[in-house]
Amino acid sequence: MKKVGNQSYMLENPVNIAATASIVGPKEKGGPLHQFFDQCLEDEFWGEKSWESAESKIVKETVNMAISKSGIAARDFDFCFAGDLLNQCIASSFGLRETNIPFIGLFGACSTFVESMLVASSFIDGGFATNCVCAASSHFCSAEKQFRFPLELGNQRPQSSQWTVTGSGSAILTKDGTGPFITSFTPGKIVDMGIKDANNMGAAMAGAAEDTLIRHFKDTGRNPSYYDAIFTGDLGHIGKDILIDLASSKGYNIKSNYNDCGVLIFDKDKQDTHSGGSGCGCIATVFSGYIYKMLQEKQYKKVLLMATGALMNSTSSQQGESIPGIAHAISIEL
Amino acid sequence: MKKVGNQSYMLENPVNIAATASIVGPKEKGGPLHQFFDQCLEDEFWGEKSWESAESKIVKETVNMAISKSGIAARDFDFCFAGDLLNQCIASSFGLRETNIPFIGLFGACSTFVESMLVASSFIDGGFATNCVCAASSHFCSAEKQFRFPLELGNQRPQSSQWTVTGSGSAILTKDGTGPFITSFTPGKIVDMGIKDANNMGAAMAGAAEDTLIRHFKDTGRNPSYYDAIFTGDLGHIGKDILIDLASSKGYNIKSNYNDCGVLIFDKDKQDTHSGGSGCGCIATVFSGYIYKMLQEKQYKKVLLMATGALMNSTSSQQGESIPGIAHAISIEL
Fold it and tell me: Is the ipTM of this complex over 0.95?
């Protein structure tokens, strides 16, 4: 490990991404990336009695699939790093209770997937682990029920709102392998832009994304053109435009090689998903499905993956609190 | 770092605990450890309009106090690791949004405080950090409201129930210093004993505590007598007795040098706290207040600190789910 600049880290021994897996719901099946996911479910329940149980099952099966693809025996994993959006992160803890792998629960809201890869990379490069599981999930129905309104009410959603992705992504990180490799990271800070509208998460998180992105460029001395592609987690259409403007105001033009996973996963015009996808499962599935395959096929050789999270709950919104954001970034290179 | 046994880790460069701080509520002020806490509040609001805001303020002031005691400038911290019991961990994210320190949010339910020290130790020993902040919190009123019943209802509480500690503990971990030192750790696995009673958390968590404790002894080749004192986080009176029995059944007698922070923090007979204290703040304040001072005064030279968490939420209980547990252990030595 070498600390570069103020708060970024170059890994001494780049960490290998040995395998990924992704399972998504029916809405994602109807989206433009459907052919990249390992499995698309026909409904939001998957044979379970509740949306929460369905989400746990999705996490469980996704992690099992990723472990299976990696060819590494479950007993040879040192740590599992995972989290989700449900209160007290129950999707992960119930979904992964049978793994028998030491478990480090994380909460970074929708930034959790990249947070898990960042922490796992530190454990592996620091010599504490050889093989790690990383995972995150979200579920449209369990999230709507918990954060907004019961779905049965059929509430209208404002155009700035985003559609929580039903799905889980999992990545297997190992000390040795042939890549793609995690080569550096810039951890996020909590940034509060004062936005209070829980139906405009993209705007609330854009400031945190800007903070991490600019620190990453300054710390590493890189420009946006260093990367073939830069992806954020779930800023959606509105947050994406704000981030492009914010970065531009700091002298960084990311317009040509930047996109957002929430923009990519749904068809805005045909799917009625307003500002785009969101949730821990958004960047988790788009990375594990689409971006990882693009890296394997050498369509991309250098990617900056930055997940964004909105740190709030329904009580804080009801109490008139603002919505602080956070963004964690990792570089992935062949 | 040296991995010992199957899943325990000896730190190559023991990590220094440079300072701790603790702030607790009025109930804890009335308990037997009151003189060890840095500050005892007169009421559960501390001038705020909601219990949630009060909890955030407690986290914020505790962390500021710990940083101040350490004498390290805030800008010289590499990471802050923190979490709490509120939905989406808002006590930590709102309380720490002004720190300007890279933030890694954790969720391990009541095991979060030791989880934060375990992860921070890995980052420091692995070369990723020099100075880290660790913190966790809970609040009796915000927890009751969220997990059980509105306090205004005045519901009766069964004898097996525990009393969530109002308070926050924070520890400053550094690469260099004169100790006490974190010397080894054993990360927890998710263990589900099938207990479904959310008013009997001690029983639900005891199995996870046993799993980690026995793995720690087997991995390190140590016996209970290696430690001057062994502390669990918040098993309470019932869970403590169960753990003593479970350990005994595996051939380890911990009766003479083991206690539980939830047992220590309240006076069972005079304070009507039934099975004892609980919550992330329980082990966080008892360690930061009492145990750390005992180490500084050389009353203890070798301590095993094991925090236990119950991985559930109110929805999972209503849906009839069991309550899986987890326990993370760290060794602290002079």
Answer: yes
CA-wise closest residue to B329 among B33, B1, B108, B85: B108
Centre a 10 Å sphere on the Cβ of residue B78 and count the other Cβ atoms it contains: 21
Can you identify the CATH homologous superfamily of domain A2-174? Stage V sporulation protein AD (3.40.47.40)
CA distances to A126, B120, B135 from B106, in Å = 19, 11, 10
pLDDT in tens, A89-98: 999 999 999 9
**What integer pLDDT is reported at residue B2 of this predicted model?**
85
User: Across the interface, which of B53, B88, B311 has its CB nearest the CB of A93?
Assistant: B311
Q: Which CATH number fits domain B181-333: 3.10.50.40, 3.40.50.150, 2.40.30.60, 3.40.47.40?
A: 3.40.47.40
DSSP A219-285: HHT--GGGSSEEEESS-HHHHHHHHHHHHHHTT---TTTEEEHHHHHS-HHHH--TT-EESHHHHHH
C-beta atoms of A122 and B125 within 8 A: no
Closest chain B residue by Cα to residue A52: B316
Strand partners, A169: A22, A136
Contact residues, A window 133-172, toward B, CB-based 8 Å cutoff: 146
* Tokens encoding B272: 């009507």
Contact present, A233 and A265 (Cβ < 8 Å): no
Q: In chain A, where are the structural domains located?
A: 2-174, 181-333
Residues of chain B positioned with their CB less than 8 A from the CB of A99: 189-190
Least confident of B95-109, B140-154, B285-299: B140-154
Q: Is B189 on the interface with A (CB under 8 A)?
A: yes
